[in-house]
C-alpha cells in the first residue's frame, strides 16, 4: 500500500467484497500468510456491519412509511365520521 488513499480503497473493496480475492492473492504473495487473519476478520465483521447498517436503514424507512400510512388512515376515518 503506497499511500493512505490506496490502503483505504483496498479496505473498502475488502469490506464490500468487490473482487477481494485478487487483493487477497496479491497481499498473500507480497506479505505472507500472517495477513490472512486480517482478511478474515475484516470480511466477517465488515460485511456483517454493512448488512446490519443496510437492514437498519430499511427498517427505519419502513417504520416511517407505516406511521405515515396509519396517520393518513386515521385522518380519513375522522373525516368519514364527521360526515
Description:
- This protein has 83 residues and is mainly alpha-helical.
- The protein is 87% helix and 0% strand.
- Helix 1 packs across helix 3.
- Its main location: membrane.
- This is Sodium channel protein type 4 subunit alpha.
- GO terms for molecular function: voltage-gated sodium channel activity.
| Alpha-beta classification | mainly alpha
Strand count, sense and closure of the main sheet?
none
The helix count comes to 3
Helix content: over 70%
Mean pLDDT level: 88
Beta-strand fraction estimate: under 5%
Order of helices and strands, N to C?
HHH
C-alpha geometry:
rod-shaped
In total, the number of strands is: 0
Number of discrete domains:
1
Distance between the termini: 72 Å
Low-confidence stretches: none
Radius of gyration: 23 Å
Protein name: Sodium channel protein type 4 subunit alpha
Main location: membrane
Organism: Espadarana callistomma
GO cellular component, one term: voltage-gated sodium channel complex
Amino acid at each position: 500500500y503506497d499511500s493512505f488513499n490506496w490502503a483505504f480503497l483496498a479496505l473498502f473493496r475488502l469490506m464490500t467484497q468487490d473482487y477481494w480475492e485478487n487483493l487477497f492473492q496479491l497481499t498473500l504473495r507480497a506479505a505472507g500468510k500472517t495477513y490472512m487473519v486480517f482478511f478474515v476478520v475484516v470480511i466477517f465483521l465488515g460485511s456483517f456491519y454493512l448488512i446490519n447498517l443496510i437492514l437498519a436503514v430499511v427498517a427505519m424507512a419502513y417504520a416511517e412509511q407505516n406511521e405515515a400510512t396509519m396517520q393518513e388512515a386515521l385522518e380519513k376515518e375522522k373525516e368519514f365520521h364527521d360526515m
